[in-house]
Amino acid sequence: MKTIAFFNNKGGVGKTSLVFHVGWMMSMLGLRTIVVDLDPQANVTSMFLYSDDIEKLWGNEHESTVYGSMKPLISGIGDIKVKEPRRIEERLFLVPGDLSLSEVEDQLSETWPKCLSGDERAFRVTTAFSRIITGAAQADEVDADIALLDVGPNFGAINRAALVAADYVIIPLSADMFSIKGLQNVGPTLRRWRRDWRDRIDRAPPNLGFELPSGSMEAIGYVVSRYSILSGGPVQAFQKWLDRAPATYIRAVMDKEPPADISIDTDENKLARLKDYRSLMPMAQEARKPMFLLKPADGAIGGHQSAVAECRDDFKKLAIRILESIGLSDKINQQF
Prior knowledge:
With 336 residues, the chain is an alpha/beta fold.
């Protein structure tokens, strides 16, 4: 199984919507897909589930959420307790998020340096997310091919532990100054976390009883979301920042000097440019389904159906591009 984190320290870049739609699309392409909500705001959970369902999850000792799985370990009464993930569709599953997840930030922060001295509990806490993901993905009815991680927009200890669990990273961007400028911090942070985790792996005690994640965090590209179109192209304000994305990504994330002639149209690191589909998103949120599955009964009538078809084509191309990048294109067995 491969694990991908969608990560940017800048909020409002369409990250959660991207995870939600890519998760749905990959399942439609035939991959057994698990979405793991590691954002304490639990936004992707709210996209999958109705409020009443979420209230029951959080009111039942948090047993079926990611926080509930960590609770015995954090409370000092045991190790993680992996629960069966929530089935959304035949091949799509969710490990629900939890507002209480923010409570584990301090312990994740405290145990990180303790790994350097080979402390066993420190390794158990630091790898808790990784082990929860693996356990949920290996459940009998799940057997996931891929796990997609939604994380919060920050460089905190929760995100560091989440990225330790990630084989790959996709960086969502929006075409604005704050997103592109923020990208300059993402690359160095990923390199530091990757380097620091490798140092800790070398100091791990023997016979932990579980396999440590590699923490490779390999960045495979960026996705630009929510840019507006005018007369067949992005409006001028967005184009200015779109033009800066390729060189910024290559310098900040790849730690290389970009070619002089690099552009958003030719940059191979750009996985997709996704438009602001405007009125489709409120309909999708109301229906708890992706924009590309909206029907007339959901309010997508008339001209909306052409936008639905365009959205479906955009996300299909993106999902296939991602799967090709990580060596899972052979898993695709659904065409539509």
